[in-house]
């Protein structure tokens, strides 16, 4: 505060010269380097003012502040494009998932440009870099024994010849009896649902009756990581950077014990799984999408690891 008062008193002449932007922006030894991301907006709709405020505006404000401080700043974002919501919307609009993503990515980019959101790079998750980095992380997990194989029972529509992702199933909620519950959640009582628990399930595509069929999937072995995660959390919480709400939610997960988490889906729209016996599957979007921050940076610069694997700077 004293330094700010001193500079204010001496006027604009006391300010350091503005940083000359470099392309691409890369970490610089001896300087403060700041990488900023904001939540990747989902591609299957037109963003409105609430999305702007809740998703990108705070990050944009902080990026502008960092640049005014002459800190070396990189601000990246992009559209999140895989997942069943994209497939559902594409079917509704009579487009392929790729055509839908191309259309709405352009819409998003135009709207953020109109609002002057100061991204250094606005990318997307459907890129070769996304597949390469996601598959590399998968192979590293596999080599280190952090993946499991197990059988899941899923609904399969024989008429459509496909396993049905959660959003492609509708039926009666087993908890409250609501007749239009989805395969992942009931909008009336709010409870989470496993699609095979639905009563009178229907395929959303053809209105046929799906059957329960076993299928093999890959799981992230979170119980194996639980001890290391707890130790890391204790150190991080001691630094005081977590909100009370974030601590509470995380402690609840750990209190109940971590469970293996499925990372594959019986879909075609997504990053392919590079493993024999699983080539007809893709990565579940919640495994794949967070890697989008890395791949979007990698599409901005081939030296992306200097931002993501460089804690010293």
From TrEMBL:
It is an enzyme of class 6 (ligase). It comes from the Eukaryota. It is found in: Cytoplasm. SUPFAM superfamilies: Methionyl-tRNA synthetase (MetRS), Zn-domain (SSF57770), Nucleotidylyl transferase (SSF52374). Its EC number is 6.1.1.10. The keyword tRNA processing does not apply. Keywords: Aminoacyl-tRNA synthetase, ATP-binding, Cytoplasm, Ligase, Nucleotide-binding, Protein biosynthesis. GO terms for cellular component: aminoacyl-tRNA synthetase multienzyme complex; cytosol. The keyword Repeat does not apply. InterPro entries: aa-tRNA-synth_I_CS (IPR001412), Met-tRNA_ligase_1 (IPR023458), Met-tRNA_synth (IPR014758), Methionyl/Leucyl_tRNA_Synth (IPR015413), MetRS_core (IPR033911), MetRS_Zn (IPR029038), Rossmann-like_a/b/a_fold (IPR014729). Residues 34-311 form the Methionyl/Leucyl tRNA synthetase domain. One of its GO terms (biological process) is methionyl-tRNA aminoacylation. It catalyses: tRNA(Met) + L-methionine + ATP = L-methionyl-tRNA(Met) + AMP + diphosphate. This is Methionine--tRNA ligase, cytoplasmic. The gene is Mars.
């Amino acid at each position: 505060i004293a330094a700010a008062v001193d500079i204010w008193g001496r006027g604009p002449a006391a300010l350091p010269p503005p940083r000359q932007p470099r392309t691409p922006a890369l970490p610089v030894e001896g300087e403060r380097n700041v990488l900023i991301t904001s939540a990747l907006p989902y591609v299957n709709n037109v963003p409105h003012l609430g999305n702007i405020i809740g998703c990108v505006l705070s990050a944009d404000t902080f990026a502008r502040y960092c640049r005014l401080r002459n800190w070396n700043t990189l601000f990246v974002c992009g559209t999140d494009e895989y997942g069943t919501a994209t497939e559902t919307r594409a079917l509704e609009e009579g487009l392929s998932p790729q055509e839908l993503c191309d259309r709405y990515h352009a819409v998003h980019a135009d709207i953020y440009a109109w609002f002057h959101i100061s991204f250094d790079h606005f990318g997307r998750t459907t890129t070769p870099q996304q597949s390469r980095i996601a598959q590399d992380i998968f192979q590293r997990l596999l080599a280190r024994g952090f993946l499991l194989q197990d059988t899941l029972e899923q609904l399969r529509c024989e008429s459509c010849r496909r396993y049905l992702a959660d959003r492609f199933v509708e039926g009666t909620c087993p908890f409250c009896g609501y007749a239009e519950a989805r395969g992942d959640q009931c909008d009336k009582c709010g409870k989470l649902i496993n699609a095979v628990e639905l009563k009178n399930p229907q395929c959303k595509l053809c209105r046929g009756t799906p059957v329960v069929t076993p299928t093999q999937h890959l799981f992230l072995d979170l119980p194996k990581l639980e001890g290391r995660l707890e130790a890391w959390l204790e150190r991080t919480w001691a630094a005081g950077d977590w909100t009370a709400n974030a601590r509470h939610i995380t402690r609840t997960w750990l209190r109940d014990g971590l469970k293996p988490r499925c990372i594959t889906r019986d879909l075609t729209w997504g990053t392919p799984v590079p493993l024999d016996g699983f080539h007809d599957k893709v990565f579940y979007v919640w495994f794949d999408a967070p890697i989008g921050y890395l791949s979007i940076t990698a599409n901005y610069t081939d030296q992306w690891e200097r931002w993501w694997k460089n804690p010293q700077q």
